[in-house]
Amino acid sequence: YQDNDDRWVVLDDVCPHRLAPLSEGRIDREKGSAGVVQCSYHGWEFDSDGKCVCIPQVTTDVQDKVIVNKRAQVASYPTCVNRNVLWCWPWKDDPLTVVADESAHPEGIMKGLGEEFSTYTRDLPYGWDSLVENLIDPAHIAFAHHGLQGKRTDAIPINMTMNGNVKERGFGFDWSDRTMGMIRHGSAEFRGPYMVTYDGTFEVSNKPFQLSVLCIPTKPGWSRAIIMQRKQRAVKTLVQKIFKAIPLFLIHQLSNKFLDSDLAFLHYQERNTERGHKYFVPAPADLCVTAFRQWIPKYTNYLETNSPLPPEMPKSQLFDRYAQHTAHCKQCQAAMKGMVKWRRRCYALLAVSVLGIQKFWAARISTLMCLAALR
Fold this sequence. Notes:
Blueprint: E1 10-11, E2 26-28, E3 36-38, E4 45-46, E5 52-54, H1 60-66, E6 76-77, E7 79-82, E8 85-88, H2 106-109, E9 117-124, H3 128-135, H4 141-144, E10 159-167, E11 170-179, E12 182-191, E13 195-202, E14 208-219, E15 222-230, H5 238-245, H6 248-274, H7 287-299, H8 302-305, H9 315-318, H10 321-324, H11 330-355, H12 361-373
Antiparallel strand pairs: 1-6, 2-3, 3-4, 4-5, 7-8, 9-15, 10-11, 11-12, 12-13, 13-14, 14-15
């Protein structure tokens, strides 16, 4: 949450008293200079640094003795905002241990993105490893996203080579493929553990292809993707002008559809892996998948912390776009509110039109239009 001093605060989501989640509590902005978090179970209160400042069930003398105990405190983590993304340092190690490593900082992870870009965020019912692995695998596009980005007939042998060795901060690779009937070439990077970025060019038109995605583990079997699309300063072609005029909420619906197209089998694929099935990856196009699977156990403890997976979900829950995106998207929320207002007005117009439907042609036309719009 953001305190009264506009500082972003990240605390452990557990009250030390009876272990209730603080996220179910409330922020009281009237107490202290920066406000406090109040647990909704027994009313214990904590400041922005996680220090307990109030225990309603004890006297002031007892409270003063209890709140200095480390067990009364909630862990608080350093935060910063970079390119409109909130970052925190959740590890026990001091952040200064990586102060000299630019690639470990948000600035290094998001290098080359620029300051102007649009974002689309979605929670996905498969893990961070599946998300990253899917993004560094251009070979699936012709089949998994058939009709959205090219066709199945675009599939050709993928030329992929690694740029140097696999290191703690990730790896890079060059690739070439065909999509939408056009050959494209480029370079890509996995900037461990969060960023996958592509920078390529279509061979015939020399049109650039750029994509950057932050891949965030959230809980076992779930991840969050933040797709960051760099804005084009010069809008030259008619297609670019039309695309720029499309409202953001419609672009988000297209992004939803794109992610839907491989969402189910990524979710079910993880369950097959958990059951003990192994990959068979003989093609050069699988080079990065193999490198990534070697990188995970060598440089992270992700495999130990991401199990067991939650139960397999039915498709009706897998494709819950509202919970996964719309509920926390300002643009889509605003569009939904606008559509509710529009429907109310449409119903009002329909009611008025029905009253005059026997006498006036305009009322008949208006009635038909309202009925068609409200279907």
